[in-house]
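During the second year of the project, the team shifted from modelling isolated chains to modelling whole assemblies. The rationale, set out in the original proposal, was that interfaces cannot be judged from single-chain predictions alone. As a representative example for this report, we include one of the complexes processed in the last quarter. Its constituent sequences, exactly as entered into the pipeline, are reproduced here:
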Amino acid sequence: MTTTIVSTVELPDKARELLRNYDIDLYELPRLSKDEWTDVLSRTEVLMCWCGREFNLADNINSMKRLKVIQTYSAGVDHLPFSVIPSNIEVYSNAGAYSVPVAEHAWAMILTLAKGLHKPVLNAKDYLGNEITSPRKIIESILLVLGTGGIGKEIARIGKEGFRTHNIGINRSGKSAEYFDEVYPTSKLLDALPRADIVAITLPLNKHTRGLIGKEELRALKRGAIVVNVGRGDVVKEEDLYEVLKERQDIRFGTDVWWVHNDHEEIPPRTPLITLPNFLGTPHIAGGAQMEIAEYAMIRAVENVIRYIKGEIPMNRVNRDDYV
Amino acid sequence: MTTTIVSTVELPDKARELLRNYDIDLYELPRLSKDEWTDVLSRTEVLMCWCGREFNLADNINSMKRLKVIQTYSAGVDHLPFSVIPSNIEVYSNAGAYSVPVAEHAWAMILTLAKGLHKPVLNAKDYLGNEITSPRKIIESILLVLGTGGIGKEIARIGKEGFRTHNIGINRSGKSAEYFDEVYPTSKLLDALPRADIVAITLPLNKHTRGLIGKEELRALKRGAIVVNVGRGDVVKEEDLYEVLKERQDIRFGTDVWWVHNDHEEIPPRTPLITLPNFLGTPHIAGGAQMEIAEYAMIRAVENVIRYIKGEIPMNRVNRDDYV
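Output from the structure prediction step:
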């Protein structure tokens, strides 16, 4: 049986090529007229989407009677309207597609903050004597990574191989992971935080991780800790973060991800975080840096869909109990 | 025979302890009255100094009739008044004492510049679409290091192990060095520059390296190259750098070292480099970050002096033909 696949964006040539040898009908929505959409969506078995602003899934899902699979191009799926997605539809994320660029960005923020490059001054005495800029050493420091998935592992690898860090991981079960010297379940977070020189947050946003980092966790940080968030903004409580960063200037905090209000990641955020000298922000660009990254992500998504077409088990199946 | 050793600064306890078992008289100038200086200097066999602002070597060398060894606490010796130092006095530098913190600082500048963190903007489109901030990938890039000594090797190691870089080294002879995939003599510099995604300058300043990087070399850089200088400012021609950075906004340049005029490293420099958006500067703080680094450097210097006391050959003998 021919499988009808729809992508909500145009695919790179390489991705189309991968699909050529399979019994499929491939449609890319930007190449169709709006009139053709209705017919195509009614036949769609596999939907590939960012399911962000380019395609409103909630508005369209009722007309997709034959839909069996949603494959996202994004690594996170926290923005999907799970409550309106029928339970017989499987959702697969693109977790891991952005591991390398996001881990590089995380390390760039860590080193920028560690060496005071976020607010450099040209007077050596001021630079060295200032809590905001005084350089901190990285080599052999203790790195705590929240989340031991693709991004977390790559951050741990760079730390261990490049800077001889001792790596502590936190994940849901506490099961061991490559490049980590120790791994604990989330319940042990408060024991791990005071040990860390560097903390990297790579967690997806779901009902277990939302607001995981609040005042108590932030106040448990070691003096002089560096924290970066490349997971999702709402893993950290915004008001709590602002309050603790204001009272503890020794903590330096960098984020590429922000807080969502009304389905919208607001940059700048509602609190005056960006005015704090111990805060560094970038506008959610870690994963979307270059065309080649987006292409790689789409190709990976297509490869996962091919697993489905071949009757294999696709990767990154989303457990919707984590979200609803 | 008792050896008289003078340090121009107070030593950390650990360094004094190292010297305890040897037949020496140790004097620390800040603990002496100015009246005692004359007598002590006249008996000094080994001088340990920064020989910067804390001790004017040119003014004092004539009264140090028994001086045989100058051991610097600094890694570079380009500031020493070689023309007034009698030729029977051996000079030893502290090369290598700052390799780890300086290499970390070099990588911090590389990543800051690569990910646009030196001028971050909060609008994603502006960030990604702007030549000044658009993120560049690091993994598997080509890293060219000028100088394959302690700092150069550590920069190469972090690149290779942390970011899978392909490492090209440049040194005087072209002899191979650990962590480098290829090494060429300085005469091949112009062939290597167009290949590099990242260039790290770690060269000491001497008559062979002064002004090595001028317009021709800078214009030979690959589009989008990232260059950092943690060696000495005057290895690069300041006016040429300003001119090329102004005409080529694709190049991003970071420096921790500056240009010397009248024996003084001038920060900010004479050209308006610091106004350029593709320039990042820190005030020569890479090596002097924390007390522990300065202590480590002094201990290393003392260990080298102990080699001399024991009749061994000290490390880092300075070839003064490189400087005069």
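Chain B has a mean pLDDT of 95. Residues 3-96+291-322 of chain B form a domain with the Rossmann fold fold (CATH 3.40.50.720).
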